Amino acid sequence: MSKMIFVNLPVTDLAKSMAFYEALGFTNNPQFTNENAAAMAWSDEIVVMLLTHDFWKTFTSKAIPNAKESAQVLLCVSMDSREAVDAIVGDAKRAGGAPDPTPTQDHGFMYGRSFEDPDGHIWETMWMDPKVAAGEMPVEHIEA
Q1: What pTM does this model have?
Q2: Which CATH number does the domain housing residue 101 bear?
């Protein structure tokens, strides 16, 4: 089995969350989906597991933070272009998410925006010039 990442997110409305992620291009894997959880594949290596609060609580006794009021993580995925970054943020807004809860970043060689899902989980989306990412072109100056 190749290395994979499973991002587990507590959600208040499983059906609504599934519809949101499907609108962004995630694919549901019905083999790992039931009334408590849904496996939403972003790629062959990245799967978002949407878990109802009751099911989430079977994994940990820690409190579920309200992601609309606090942030425990910022999830970030790379995109193929600046236009793809803008497109997924637009898709998120149309699907009921909140666009740009964090500042847009535009460093020329790197561009990023973000969105919140219906439960307030923040997803950053970014594009980086492939030549910079591969080390073929130096970054002379990165603004903090």
Answers
A1: 0.89
A2: 3.10.180.10
